[in-house]
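Minutes, project check-in
Item: structure for the 91-residue chain
Input as provided by the requester:
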Amino acid sequence: MRSRYSAYALGLSDYVLSSWHASTRPRTLTLDPDVRWYRLDILGRTGGGLLDTTGTVEFTAYCRSPDGATEQHEVSLFVKENGNWFYRDAR
């Protein structure tokens, strides 16, 4: 989760796509260069341990754009395949 947030903050759309599960990944992703992500609060998690194959992360991410400050609250589902974690969708 933190690496995906960092990728959004740095504008690394290739990383965001590569960490997205193939079953839900969009074909392309264009990140808005005017959006500045500046804070991530992890509010909770379930699963995601060494022996788990699924996990959730509840978070709030904060950003600023020319339209003002906003936040995104989400519970994200992650799945592990071949030892790698992938974002699948939001709950």
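Outcome recorded: The chain has a mean pLDDT of 97.
No further action items on this chain.
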